[in-house]
Specification:
Elements: H1 2-19, H2 24-38, H3 40-55, H4 57-66, H5 71-84, H6 91-111, H7 113-116, H8 122-135, H9 144-152, E1 164-165, E2 168-169, H10 185-212, H11 218-239, H12 243-277
Antiparallel strand pairs: 1-2
């Protein structure tokens, strides 16, 4: 599944790469923007669902308190509440599954650019892999396709990929280049953007709690935990993956923050107009 999606993404990334003068970094940024635009309807739906779920917390907690000794009836009442509000309790799960599919597919794409972006014949890749393995006494990187680009592109123009972006080599893996300070720039920027994103989410939730006088339920607590765990997981993976993946995550995170600001303003504005009409 991931390989199939990575292969489709590869066509788009290759088209962008060739179209903007063969700059891998700019192509990745444009690729991320296009992907976020495609996912925008799902993002809007998710934001509306999250907002509505937060607003229903008070009613849900009333049901939980009222039927705390009757779990079966409590679950029935909660499901009836979801139906009345035209809200699916699994809407967030669909979005999370899509995000995981995309993250892993992009990981395949940036770690194996010769296969998924350049569409190089597997036999040619294997020959270069064996050559490098022989030169390194049988040792070869887990990202052998990137190592092939680094060591063999000078003799084969077909496998060349320009991964220089603003002085950063997007083919480098932080865990393999720990003495190079430059490899930490993109992951650090990603951490900063993640902290900002977390503050936006938790700040809005805390405001709702203060206005609502009720304690956060398990769903809210899980969302908070995930908002902290996802960036930590992403940074951990970015540390052992090529910088191209970290760049994708950074740009995607910035776009998600902007989307959240715009969508929240749009939803709030629409609700105010509805209340005024009433």
């Amino acid at each position: 599944m991931f390989q199939f999606i990575a292969n489709i993404f590869g066509y788009l990334l290759e088209w962008l790469y060739n179209g903007i003068g063969q700059n891998y970094g700019i192509a990745l940024i444009l690729f991320t923007i296009i992907l976020r635009i495609i996912l925008l309807p799902l993002t809007i739906k998710q934001q509306k669902s999250m907002k509505k779920t937060t607003e229903l917390q008070g009613k849900m907690q009333e049901i939980q308190f009222k039927y705390k000794n009757n779990p079966e009836l409590m679950n029935k009442e909660i499901m009836d509440l979801y139906k009345r509000e035209n809200l699916s309790p699994f809407s967030g799960c669909i979005s999370s599954i899509v995000q995981i599919l995309i993250i892993l597919s992009v990981f395949y794409l940036v770690s194996r650019p010769l296969t998924y972006m350049k569409k190089i014949d597997p036999g040619i890749i294997e020959n270069y892999r064996n050559e490098i393995s022989a030169e390194n006494d049988g040792k070869i990187s887990n990202y052998y396709e990137i190592e092939i680009i680094q060591k063999k592109a000078a003799q084969d123009e077909n496998i060349k990929v320009n991964m220089d972006f603003l002085g950063l080599d997007l083919s480098k893996v932080p865990s393999q280049n720990m003495t190079d300070i430059k490899v930490y720039i993109i992951p650090i920027l990603y951490v900063i953007s993640s902290i900002f994103s977390i503050k936006m989410t938790t700040g809005k939730t805390n405001k709702k709690e203060q206005n609502g006088s009720s304690q956060p339920d398990m769903t809210q607590q899980m969302n908070k935990s995930m908002s902290y765990m996802m960036p930590i997981m992403a940074v951990s993976i970015a540390f052992v993956a090529p910088l191209g993946l970290a760049l994708y995550w950074l740009i995607s995170n910035i776009l998600m923050i902007l989307e959240r600001i715009v969508i929240n303003k749009y939803v709030d504005s629409k609700e105010e107009k509805t209340l005024c009409l009433k």
